[in-house]
Amino acid sequence: MAETQSRGHVFAGQKRGTGDDGFDGDDVFVAKKSMLPTMATENDPAAALASARHEFGEHGGVNMSIEASATFTVMEPETMRRMFAGELGPDRDFFIYSRHFNPTVLNLGRLMAALEGTEAAYCTASGMSAISSVLLQLCSSGGHVVASRTLYGGTHALLTHFLPRACNITTTFVDIGDVEAVKNAIVEGRTKVLYFESMSNPTLTVANIPELSRIGHEKGTAVVVDNTFAPMVLSPARLGADVVVHSISKFISGGADVIAGAVCGPASLVNSMMDLHQGALMLLGPTMNAKVAFELSERIPHLGLRMKEHCCRAMEYAIRMKKLGLKVIYPGLEDHPQHELLKSMANKEYGFGGLLCVDMETEERANRLMHHLQNYTQFGFMAVSLGYYETLMSCSGSSTSSEMNAEEKALAGISPGLVRMSIGYIGTLEQKWSQLEKALSRMQDSNLFNKN
C-alpha cells in the first residue's frame, strides 16, 4: 500500500521487499510502546476525520485494498521471534495473524480514533464484544463496577448476571443523574469502572460526562462511555471520559447490514487488550472481518451528513408530535430535563440525536401505534436497532430492555408503552410526516393524547 502520513506516526505502507524484513539493527521499533497512531486533536469530529491518514489501494486506488489474509509471511526466521516478542509490529508493516492485527481493520480503527478524539481504537465483531472486552480488561475477579441503571438490556444482563457468575465482578446500579449517589457508590480501591451511556437506551437521558468523569478520576476509577446513540453529536473522550465504546452496527454503519463494535481509548489500554498473554481482545477473539472493516471505512466519511439529517428530522417530528399532544421524549425539546446540559456538551451543528420516544403508557397502545405506522401508512418498520435510513420502531420494555425485570424497568424510567423511534431520512420530511399523521388518525382513541 502507498505510504501515507497522519499527525502522529508514519506507517510503512509499502510492502517489504523480497528477502528484506525492512529493519536495521540500530532502528528497532518496539511495537508494544505504541502499536497505534495518535490521532488528530481537532474538536470537531468531521475535521478530525478529514485529518486522519488516508489509506490508498495497493495499486494507487483511491480506496484502500482489502487484506483478506488470515496469516502473514516473514522473509527471515528471526523476524517471527521478534514479532512475538513485541519488538516489531503493525507500525512497521509487520503482521502476525488477523485475530491480532489486520491492516484493513487497523485502518478502520484509525478512523474511529479520529472520530472520538482518542489515541487509538480497535474494532471488534460486535458492540457487545467491545463492551465485555473492556470490562474484562479493566476488572479482575472481585472487581466492582458502578453503572447507570438505565442501559441497553444486553449490557444490563452482562453486568447483572454473567459477570458476577463467571468472573466474580459485581455492579452497583445508580441514577447516573444523581451525582451524590454516584460518589457514594464508588468504593475507592475496589471500583474499577464507572460505566454509562452518553444518551441512555431507551429513555434518552443525557449524562453529565464532564462531571461524571471528574468524579471517576477523583476516585481513581476508569470512566467508560457507550456513545452508540450519539456519534458526531457528542465526543465523550473530549469531555473527559477515558474509554468510548460503540456498536458500529447502528448509526456508523447506517445500513442495518453489519454487526460490529469498537473500543476507543488510550493507546496503552488498546495495546494491553492486544497483549499476547493478558489481552482480552487478543485472547477472547472478537475479531472483525477485513471485508466488514472495508465496508465501514467507506461509510464513515459521510456519517456527519447522515447524522445531521437524522437529527434534523427527529427534532422536527418531536416538535410537531408534541403540538399534537403526544408525550414525546427528545433531548432537543426545551422541556427535556437535560436539554441545556446537552447543548453545553454537544458538537455544534449536529443536532440533538436521531432518536425520540413516544410514551403511549400501555404496551397495547404502543403496539397499535406501531402497527398503523408500519402496515397502513409505511412510516417505518417495527424492528430493533437504530441508525437505519428508514425509521425503526420498537416497544422497548418488551424488546431491547426485556432482559430487565419489572422493578428494574420502573427504576430506569421505562414505561410499558414507551415506543423508541430511530428516525430515518428516506423520502421527504413532509411525505413522512403525512404518513405519521394518517396513522395517528386511524387510532381513533380519544385518550391517545395528553391534552393540556
TrEMBL record:
It holds the Pfam family Cys_Met_Meta_PP. Keywords: Pyridoxal phosphate. The keyword Nucleotide-binding does not apply. Gene3D superfamilies: Aspartate Aminotransferase, domain 1, Type I PLP-dependent aspartate aminotransferase-like (Major domain). Its cofactor is pyridoxal 5'-phosphate. Residues 1-23 are annotated as: Disordered. InterPro entries: Cys/Met-Metab_PyrdxlP-dep_enz, PyrdxlP-dep_Trfase, PyrdxlP-dep_Trfase_major, PyrdxlP-dep_Trfase_small. It comes from the Eukaryota. The keyword Methyltransferase does not apply. Belongs to the trans-sulfuration enzymes family. This is Methionine gamma-lyase.
